[in-house]
Write a structure and sequence with these properties.
This protein is an alpha+beta fold and 381 residues long. The protein is built from 11 helices and 16 strands. The longest helix has 18 residues.
């Protein structure tokens, strides 16, 4: 690819505007003391990575697995569906909601048990119900991971108990958590400090408490999931939202995971700002056209262009294009890419589209174009 040329008078203005919007008072960007072996901080709205430590290191993920389990169950099941727990599910080792074999529970109640108290028994019961078997459900989990771009993730079970072929990365888990949080019901469940359900074994209501301390310790905290095994260490995916901005922190093998997560969430919310640089359909200049009735076409943004950067960050706007397009060109055809760069790295991008039809410069089109101009002159007079 080569850098093409546009009339940049608009782009320069946008760059100045963006820098001004991002200026303000806030913490300076700097190093953070994070105990975790691997960690990442993601901006929720844009998916930008704001901070990272060993983000692509494959590690056991323990009960962070259950985020994918819950996301798939919500896509495939009705919340009021009835699930009869098998003996196999009830006997699943590790953390538990203590469901009873042969008893029937609502999907929604099992999801609360899955995400609030990390019930491995709930994970097994939901997987067997939604997928007909745990093995089939795990296959769905792996297919969904690939679709989300979580290429370094492999699931071997729906709960996160140790298995040789069960691992992920901080980067992949942030992608999965961001996807799951886009489901309002998932977001509601993981932000709940407690939940009450009818226990069919005792025939009484029972209340369970969320294990995620962040919901009490950080302003705006709204999820997501804790995890622990000896192999994985202390793990946590935490999210917090303030003034419509959400950040997601992933902690893997963090001896001080609560402090790690709090540090990352506060840093993401206080030291960064998200701003709109350009709107969909906004003209950003003109692009050269070969063999057209017009030598250029207006260039417009194909989508809203948002960026999250440290406060007071300086940015550059750059138009990326191959060889100029050859007429005829249809309106809204892609003609390039507008990138936002910060400190030499691309942090956001949006497609640039042709803002108008451009006919080829053949004789027939020339004559048609000439006659249309004559008609316009006649009408004007």
């Amino acid at each position: 690819m080569k850098y093409g040329r546009l009339s940049f008078k608009y782009l320069v203005c946008y760059a100045v505007i963006a820098v001004l919007l991002l200026s303000g008072r806030g913490k300076a960007q700097g190093s953070l003391a994070i105990s975790a072996s691997a960690a990442i901080l993601m901006d929720g709205p844009t998916g930008q990575i704001l901070w990272a430590k060993n983000p692509d290191w494959q590690r056991p993920m323990a009960s962070l697995t259950k985020i994918m389990t819950a996301a798939l169950v919500l896509e495939r099941c009705d919340l009021n569906d009835s699930v009869t727990v098998s003996l196999n599910a009830a006997r699943t080792e590790g953390s538990s909601m203590y469901v009873r074999a042969g008893q029937t529970y609502r999907v929604e109640d099992l999801l609360h048990g899955l995400m609030l108290v990390s019930g491995n028994d709930c994970a097994a019961a939901l997987a067997e119900y939604a997928g007909d078997s745990q093995e089939a459900f795990v296959n769905w989990m792996n297919r969904k991971a690939k679709l989300l771009g979580a290429e370094n993730t492999r699931f071997a079970n729906p709960h996160g108990l140790p298995a040789p072929d069960h691992y992920s990365t901080a980067s992949d888990l942030a992608l999965i958590a961001r996807y799951a949080l886009a489901n309002p019901k998932f977001a509601e469940i993981v932000s709940s400090k407690q939940a009450t359900y009818f226990d069919p074994a005792s025939e009484n209501p029972r209340t369970i408490q969320n294990k995620n301390r962040m919901l009490w310790d950080v302003e705006g905290a709204d999820g997501v999931k804790t995890g622990y095994t000896l192999a994985a260490g202390r793990c946590l995916i935490a999210s917090a939202t303030r003034e419509a901005r959400r950040v997601i922190a992933v902690i893997l093998d963090g001896p001080d995971m609560w402090e790690d997560a709090k540090t990352l969430l506060e840093y993401g919310l206080e030291a960064f700002s998200t701003r709109l640089v350009g709107r969909k359909g906004q003209e950003v200049g003109r692009a050269a056209v070969l063999k057209g009735l017009s030598p250029t076409t207006s260039a417009v943004l194909g989508e809203d262009l948002w960026v999250t950067l440290p406060i007071k960050a300086q940015i550059e706007l750059e138009y990326l294009q191959g060889a100029p397009p050859t007429a005829p060109i249809i309106q809204w055809a892609p003609i390039g890419m507008l990138q936002i760069k910060h400190a030499g790295s691309v942090v956001a991008a949006a497609p640039v589209l042709a803002g108008q039809d451009i006919k080829s410069s053949g004789l027939k089109n020339y004559v048609s174009h000439f006659l249309s101009k004559v008609k316009e002159l006649v009408r004007a007079n």
